[in-house]
From TrEMBL, chain A:
It is a peripheral membrane protein. This is NADH-quinone oxidoreductase subunit D. One of its GO terms (cellular component) is plasma membrane. NCBIfam families: NuoD, PRK06075.1. NDH-1 shuttles electrons from NADH, via FMN and iron-sulfur (Fe-S) centers, to quinones in the respiratory chain. The immediate electron acceptor for the enzyme in this species is believed to be a menaquinone. Couples the redox reaction to proton translocation (for every two electrons transferred, four hydrogen ions are translocated across the cytoplasmic membrane), and thus conserves the redox energy in a proton gradient. Its main location: membrane. The gene is nuoD2. It catalyses: a quinone + NADH + 5 H(+)(in) = a quinol + NAD(+) + 4 H(+)(out). Its EC number is 7.1.1.-. Residues 139-409 form the NADH-quinone oxidoreductase subunit D domain. It comes from Caldinitratiruptor microaerophilus. Keywords: Cell membrane, Membrane, NAD, Quinone, Translocase, Transport. It is found in: Cell membrane. Belongs to the complex I 49 kDa subunit family. The keyword Metal-binding does not apply.
UniProtKB/TrEMBL annotation, chain B:
PANTHER family: NADH DEHYDROGENASE [UBIQUINONE] IRON-SULFUR PROTEIN 3, MITOCHONDRIAL (PTHR10884:SF14), NADH DEHYDROGENASE UBIQUINONE IRON-SULFUR PROTEIN 3 (PTHR10884). The keyword Nucleus does not apply. The keyword rRNA-binding does not apply. It is found in: Cell membrane. NDH-1 shuttles electrons from NADH, via FMN and iron-sulfur (Fe-S) centers, to quinones in the respiratory chain. The immediate electron acceptor for the enzyme in this species is believed to be a menaquinone. Couples the redox reaction to proton translocation (for every two electrons transferred, four hydrogen ions are translocated across the cytoplasmic membrane), and thus conserves the redox energy in a proton gradient. This is NADH-quinone oxidoreductase subunit C. One of its GO terms (cellular component) is plasma membrane.
Length: 409, 189
């Protein structure tokens, strides 16, 4: 009796729900600290033997109130917190937000900044997909691709470090252009990297794509039909793997993407293997875009000349009273953005990343709503996991490619 | 080299054809808002959103792109304090439509769409968690980002940025507060 009471009192409401309803079913909780969840995801799985009957994702462990913080910072300062959502692709976060604010302001961005943005976000897409390939391979026991992929990513992060000063959270894009000019040797370091790239990507492909173990572990797993993927709100590679050729860069071009030649790879079966191969193809397409951007990189300023949003050059501040006033105003209270709301979608490595920005005319964003593609991908997991084997769960989560900084914000 | 993108034409079609049809089907409860940036937008009253959503789904909008909340307090108070913003999307037609539903009062409430689009389920939970807007008919309206025992709804404008749970200033007495072996506070001076 005493023991029963004790047992009941230590169980909270949630644990009682976890107790098995049917005798032949077992409920297990995976995560939140599990290496295969690629972050902090908890999955409550109901098993019949080794088959998953029901899966319930639970997240929020990485919730840091980024949207609330952004509302309490000036328009420029908000870039730095929004940077930290999708930590594998911070430049995409920058780009979506900056484009939205520029739309509200009606600021023209100089061509060099536009091309540099395309170039850097495509490099970022390659880096993000490389993490996906490396860690995804690791999940099914492929140890070597991890080192190949991370070594390749390292080169991209070196370029970022040289260009922006930071490897992981550059906060490099500013409203009206770039935080600072590209370094003088930018062209050379990117070309040096690109020269070695195709051969090394081929090595990585050889290790994964035709590997019989990898094929066995990924083919026919986590299948979603096109209708299901659309109904679940999936975008990006997860949607395209199911055969829907929707890419924001092609459908609603932003940031000058209409000037670039590239294809949108599409999968057939909508399984984990297609999601893998599709991302390898996307790396190849991004490689093409990077080369085009590098060849056509225009000369000129990296920041708009509109002094209401852009800091004046330091040299000018030393001589001109007006520049000093602009500098002081921009640093102390920032700029004001006309009232209105705008939905700016971009194609991040994870899908349609969009920011819905509301301004009330003040110097801080009234509301920054982020549409996180990973959020919907995580909530598509129950559908993908239903009827799958427990051992395949790891692969299904990896193929959905969620980043929890973005899911929880 | 530039090829025309299909998106802007699709949005133009929504603005010129679908929005007028929607307004004709729901007279009095739906009104068109100006389109400052690309995506056409409509304001719909909370009672009518369910009907409008069903109409849009039948019309071909097969994806609920996004669902989010906005708090306009203190600019607006009373019945339209909040806004629930829906972005509907149609594939492969590439139609996008924004529907804004003003809600307010002591217990803001709108009908749930989670039986029409499955991804409305987590998105509505997030709006409930962050803004305290209820979704009538939602199967499990629980918190999703904040812990279950959290008090208040953080993205409301009257929720303080630093509440009582926020970390206080770091004092000398805190130096070894969580140290496993040292329990004396450091010497002052």
């Amino acid at each position: 009796m005493r023991g029963d009471e004790l047992a009941m009192s230590t169980l909270d409401r949630e644990d009682v729900e976890v107790l098995d309803e049917k005798q032949d079913r077992m409920t297990i909780s995976v995560g939140p600290h599990h290496p295969s969840t690629h972050g902090v995801l908890r999955l409550v799985l109901e098993l019949e033997g080794e088959t998953i009957v029901k899966a319930q994702p639970e997240h929020g462990f990485l919730h840091t109130g980024i949207e609330k913080s952004a509302e309490n910072l000036t328009w420029t300062q908000a870039i730095t917190v929004l940077d930290r959502m999708d930590y594998l692709s911070p430049l995409s976060n920058n780009l979506g937000y900056v484009l939205a604010v520029e739309k509200l302001l009606g600021v023209e961005v100089p061509p060099k900044a536009v091309w540099a943005r395309v170039l850097l976000t495509e490099l970022q897409r390659i880096a993000s997909h490389l993490v996906f390939l490396g860690t995804g391979g690791l999940d099914v026991g492929a140890q070597s691709p991890y080192f190949y992929a991370f070594d390749m990513r390292e080169g991209i992060l070196d370029i970022f470090e040289e260009t922006t000063g930071a490897r992981m959270n550059p906060s490099y894009f500013r409203v009206g252009g770039l935080a600072k000019d590209l370094p003088e040797h930018f062209d050379r370091i990117v070309r040096d990297y690109l020269k070695k790239f195709p051969g090394r990507l081929q090595e990585l492909k050889d290790l994964l794509e035709e590997n019989p173990i990898f094929l066995d572990r990924t083919k026919g797993i986590g299948v979603l039909t096109a209708e299901q993927a659309i109904a679940l709100g999936l975008t990006g590679p997860n949607l395209r793997a199911s055969g829907v050729a929707y890419d924001v860069r092609k459908a609603f071009p932003y940031c000058g993407y209409e000037n670039f030649q590239f294809d949108v790879p599409v999968g057939k079966n909508g399984d984990a293997y297609d999601r893998f191969v599709l991302r390898i193809r996307e790396i190849e397409e991004s490689y093409k875009i990077v080369q085009q951007a590098l060849d056509g990189m225009p000369e000129g300023p990296h920041m708009t000349s509109n002094r209401k949003v852009a800091l004046p050059p330091k040299e000018e501040v030393r001589h001109s009273m007006e520049a000093l006033i602009h500098h002081f105003k921009l640093v102390s209270e920032g700029f004001k953005v006309p009232a209105g709301e705008v939905y700016q979608a971009i194609e991040s490595p994870r899908g349609e990343f969009a920011v819905y920005v509301v301004s009330d005319g003040g110097n801080k964003p009234w509301r920054v709503r982020v549409r996180p593609p990973s959020f919907y991908a995580v909530h598509a997991l129950p559908t993908m996991l239903q009827g799958a084997m427990l051992a395949d769960m790891v692969m299904i989560i990896a193929a959905a490619d969620p980043v929890f900084g973005e899911v929880d914000r | 080299m530039t090829t025309a993108a299909p998106g802007p034409a699709a949005l133009e079609h929504v603005r010129t054809t679908i929005v007028p049809e929607l307004l004709a089907a729901f007279p009095g409860v739906a009104e068109e808002l100006p389109t400052p940036f690309e995506i056409p937008q409509v304001r719909v009253s909370p009672e009518a959103i369910r009907g409008v959503a069903e109409w849009l789904k039948a019309r071909g909008f097969n994806m609920l792109l996004d669902l989010g909340g906005v708090d306009y307090h203190p600019h607006r108070q009373g019945e339209d304090r909040f806004e629930v913003v829906y972005h509907f999307f149609a594939l492969p037609q590439l139609w996008k439509l924004r529907v804004r539903v003003p809600v307010g009062g002591q217990k803001p409430e709108v009908p749930s769409l989670s039986d029409l689009w499955p991804n409305a389920n987590p998105a509505e939970r997030e709006v409930w968690d962050q803004f305290g807007i209820r979704f009538r008919g939602h199967p499990n309206l629980t918190r999703i980002l904040n812990p279950d025992d959290w008090e208040g709804h953080p993205l409301r404008k009257d929720y303080p940025l630093r509440g009582p749970r926020a970390m206080g200033p770091y004092l000398p007495a805190d130096l070894n507060r969580f140290h496993p072996f040292k329990d004396e506070p450091p010497d002052e001076g």
